[in-house]
């Protein structure tokens, strides 16, 4: 008995030692940086974003509704507003409406960088109009904010990058590395006419990029419990996308003599099976690298937990499982979005069909999802097929040890000294997916501060950007271009 106790005690001591060792060697991954002075914004800078918002470059699902004059107007406006960019960079219009600027570098041995944004914005739901404090396309400047559709997503990306380049040109800065600026015109409907065409165009010229920086994460306060500082979340991967149609055809007939299970019943059972058999959680996937960066910044108790995920994994998992947003970052998600069947109350439907949308974790695949669904549903009566919406495989995971990531991390630390940097998995889709053949280093980060309310304004009501934050956004791009040119 005594022997067992001694063994037990020894095991506890060893375990405590391992936990403590892991915790103490769970070092901060934040880069040390000297804060840089911010770009001096004047009223003209603010007015240029305000004007850019006024062009109603809306993307509609039905691309025939595109207002080409709005895009042409925006192009003319950019040409006259950034005269040095206009005279010293080359501009190619790809597929008529997408813009590709090239600022030639002096050293062809260095791979170019590519900064992205998109010209199009989502439509404004007329029902929300009364909720807007200012008309969505007026570009009103008030109380320290610039208001309007596109203020955050993402006219501010275009104008801030052009402000940065114009500023550097004025200073006679000459990049060693070529800088591309790429602005597609249909990101909100998949980017296949815009960003994909730009990427194909560059690929035909055998361009290899050092990195791509697109929208995605931003600087957010209060997202990680236990972390007080704002966190700059930088997307290093994004999920894939596939919608599957599940359909069943039965005999139909009169409802007075029904079979034991109707088409509706068969399909409902299949959806229930899918919802009760979610895709497995990946505690070591792209969704969890965030913990490697925020974990060391937490208090001792939380540090101990995140440094010892081999032991506390299930505890962390049960916490992440509580919120839809955190659960989604840990596995391929299953969302039944359409369910249709039946026409008349006393007639058995012949057909029932449903659409289930999956957002695929890096590491999984479209085919993997199809196989999993067939296995779980396990019912010969049900046909599983992809819908007309073309699926996207999940992205690769960008290398956190690359020089490219260091440039983005270092720049963030210099321009936002009060902010922590953390890589994360983007749950939606961005135009950057189209650039996968041009570089392994794709980062998704919009250097703008957002609070909880701002997040709801994106694609929502009263979208706006603070002038103070916009100044930092421009400073970020200036500093990034400098840091990318050793
Ligand atoms: Zn966007």
Description:
Helix 1 crosses helix 9. The mean pLDDT is 94. Strand 4 and strand 5 form a beta hairpin. By secondary structure, this protein is α+β, with helices and mostly antiparallel strands. The protein has helices at 2-24, 43-54, 68-81, 83-88, 155-170, 195-204, 263-276, 289-294, 300-307, 309-320, 324-328, 366-377, 403-415, 452-457, 467-483; strands at residues 90-94, 98-103, 113-118, 141-142, 145-147, 179-184, 211-220, 231-238, 240-249, 253-254, 333-341, 347-348, 351-360, 382-386, 420-426, 442-450, 464-466. The protein starts with a helix and ends with a helix. The chain is built from 15 helices and 17 strands. The strands form four sheets. Strands 1, 2, 3, 6, 7, 8, 15 and 16 form an eight-stranded mixed β-sheet that branches. Strands 11-13-9-14 form a four-stranded antiparallel β-sheet, with helices on one face. A three-stranded antiparallel β-sheet has the order 4-5-17. It folds into two domains: 43-237 and 395-483, Aminopeptidase, CATH 3.40.630; 239-386, 2-Layer Sandwich (Alpha-Beta Plaits). It binds zinc ion (ZN). Zinc ion binds next to loops.
Spell out the blueprint of helices and strands.
Blueprint lengths: L1 H23 L18 H12 L13 H14 L1 H6 L1 E5 L3 E6 L9 E6 L22 E2 L2 E3 L7 H16 L8 E6 L10 H10 L6 E10 L10 E8 L1 E10 L3 E2 L8 H14 L12 H6 L5 H8 L1 H12 L3 H5 L4 E9 L5 E2 L2 E10 L5 H12 L4 E5 L16 H13 L4 E7 L15 E9 L1 H6 L6 E3 H17 L3
Parallel strand pairs: 3-6, 3-7, 7-16, 8-15
Antiparallel strand pairs: 1-2, 2-6, 4-5, 5-17, 7-8, 9-13, 9-14, 10-12, 11-13
Helix pairs in contact: 1-9, 2-5, 5-15, 13-15
Bound molecules: zinc ion.
């Amino acid at each position: 008995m005594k022997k067992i106790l001694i063994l037990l005690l020894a095991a506890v001591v060893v375990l405590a030692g391992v936990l403590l060792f892991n915790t103490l060697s769970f070092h901060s991954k934040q880069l040390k940086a000297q804060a840089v002075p911010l770009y001096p914004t004047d009223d003209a800078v603010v007015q240029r974003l305000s004007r850019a918002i006024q062009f109603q470059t809306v993307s509609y699902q039905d691309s025939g509704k595109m207002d080409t004059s709005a895009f042409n107007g925006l192009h003319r406006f950019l040409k006259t507003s950034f005269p040095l960019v206009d005279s010293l960079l080359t501009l190619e219009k790809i597929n008529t409406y997408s813009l590709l600027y090239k600022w030639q570098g002096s050293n062809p041995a260095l791979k170019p960088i590519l900064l992205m944004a998109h010209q199009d914005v989502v439509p404004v739901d007329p029902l929300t109009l009364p909720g807007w404090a200012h008309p969505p396309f007026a570009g009103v400047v008030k109380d320290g904010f610039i208001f309007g559709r596109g203020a955050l997503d993402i006219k501010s990306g275009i104008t801030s990058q052009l402000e940065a380049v114009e500023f550097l040109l004025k200073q006679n800065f000459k990049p060693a590395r070529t800088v591309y600026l790429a602005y597609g015109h249909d990101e909100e409907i998949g980017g296949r006419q815009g960003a994909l065409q730009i990427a194909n165009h560059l690929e035909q010229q055998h361009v290899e990029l050092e990195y791509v920086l697109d929208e995605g994460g931003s600087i957010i306060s209060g997202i990680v419990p236990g972390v007080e500082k704002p966190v700059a979340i930088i997307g290093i991967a994004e999920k894939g996308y596939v919608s599957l149609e599940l359909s069943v055809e039965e005999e139909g007939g009169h409802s007075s003599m029904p079979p034991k299970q109707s088409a509706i019943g068969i399909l409902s059972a299949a959806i229930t099976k899918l919802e009760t058999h979610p895709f497995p959680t990946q505690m070591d996937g792209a969704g969890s690298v965030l913990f490697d960066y925020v974990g060391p910044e937490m208090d001792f108790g939380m540090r101990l937990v995140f440094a010892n995920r081999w032991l506390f994994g299930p505890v962390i998992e049960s916490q992440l499982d509580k919120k839809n947003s955190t659960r989604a970052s840990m596995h391929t998600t299953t969302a039944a979005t359409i369910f249709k069947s039946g026409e008349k109350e006393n007639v058995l439907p012949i057909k029932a069909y449903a659409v289930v949308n999956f957002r695929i974790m890096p590491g999984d695949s479209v085919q993997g999802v199809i196989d999993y669904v067939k296995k779980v549903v396990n019912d010969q009566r049900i046909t599983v097929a992809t819908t007309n919406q073309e699926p996207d495989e999940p992205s690769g995971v960008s290398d956190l040890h690359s020089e490219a990531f260091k440039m983005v991390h270092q720049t963030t630390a210099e321009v936002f000294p009060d902010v922590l940097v953390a890589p994360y998995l983007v749950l939606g889709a961005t135009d950057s997916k189209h650039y996968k053949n041009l570089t392994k280093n794709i980062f998704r980060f919009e250097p703008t501060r957002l609070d909880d309310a701002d997040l709801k304004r994106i694609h929502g009501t009263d979208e706006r950007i603070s002038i103070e934050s916009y100044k930092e956004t421009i400073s970020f791009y200036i500093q990034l271009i400098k840091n990318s040119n050793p």
